[in-house]
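Listing S7. Sequence submitted for prediction.
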Amino acid sequence: MTEQTLPAVCDTLIRNGYLITMDAERTVYACGAVAVSGNAIVAVGRDADIAARFLPRRVIDAKGGVIHPGFIDCHCHANIHLSRGIIPDQPASQPAPFSFSDWTNHLEDEDEYIQTQIVGLEMLRHGYTFFLEPGTVYEPDAAAAAAESVGVRAGLADPYLWDVSDGPNSRPSTTRRIPNDSKRAFKILSGQLTRNKDPDALVRGHVALYGVGYSSEDLMRAAKDCADAHGVTCTTHHNFDQDDAKSNDERFGGGHNMVYFAQRGLLGSNCLYVHMNVIRDDEIPVILDSGMSLVWHPGNSIYYNINSSFKPRIPELIERGCNVVFGVDAAKIWTFGDLELIGYLDARQHGHYISTARIMEMRTLNAARAVGLSDMIGSIESGKRADIVIRSTDVPEVLPGVNPIQELLLSGHRATVSTVLVDGRLVFLDGRSTQVDQNAVVAAGRAMARRVLDRAGYIPRLPWNVIS
């Protein structure tokens, strides 16, 4: 054997898996392999071909399981993740006995750190490797440290950028820690973008407004200009329900607000608008022409009964080529991996069909585009970062294995992950974190939630008497 034909050395060789690459051709290898060196993918192909080319320092046998790019969540409020089971599960027209503001008002930096660790572990268990936080973590450094400790990617923004106090709900008036303040909003805008100086950082910065309903046009323009100048995503909550849309229409001239934003140059391909449960006919071409992305949360629209009398338009926009993605939002009664099935069923309820192939794109390629990282993540291709998930083969949810993509996203969407690499590092193996003591983090999360409740003086309502 000559020197020219000697196998190349690589750090990790993942072999013998049903490899879903999500490349431009959507190539799938029934028995595929991936070679990784450092933090990057260096080769992808048939198992026999790749194995013959590389001499690995470590081999991971996928045992026939599905290999796919790490999923990307485009909207996750990390610091209210453990309020589930505490915030009442009955959406009420009257103020809830305990709200998200009640929860966040009693958080300390350590609480945000612990919750973000829980978010990271939950992500890995469900095949996610990146989450975008929409500027609602009070102490971004705590969230960044937590994400890095678990080994997941995160996008963080300056906390609570808002300068309008009379938005469509009472959040600004009930959030004590960061009151609504115009001077502060303009002063700290772009602060988290310093994270992007390190191209290898797991945690990156973007621009986020709390919501259009709480932002002046001047602040919206400053945020969009900042995102344009730094080549990052600009995200915001918008048009959650009909009252929200009506309020925004009135504030911005009386017409439909998305049309106004387009006329004012406030929309673009780096915009990521969240919820958008209310979209009118004349706003559809505006959204499509702008090239913007939308975060769809079908669970919220069902949970709050938003679309019972108002036709949802996002399934139609998906069919027409809009870049629509998913976000777990606040984990009220769902978590990572649930929204694919909810969205599939919600679309069917309204006469639309979203294929599992399309849903797979929404969780990978579309999501990478939405967060501005298409050149780095979202597919398993040479040159991209090695964010790779391997699914188990020994759980009944993945059977019969005839249509792995459909089984993965619908019937087997729960915690079926065996192994995860993020940035080439093995962060999850045999269903457990390799970076932190998983049992200790879970225990810390349980204790943290009880401390917050004690500070708030709130006892959650339970359906039956519990005898201690």
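Caption to Listing S7: primary sequence and predicted structure tokens for the chain studied. The chain has 17 helices and 18 strands. The radius of gyration is 22 Å.
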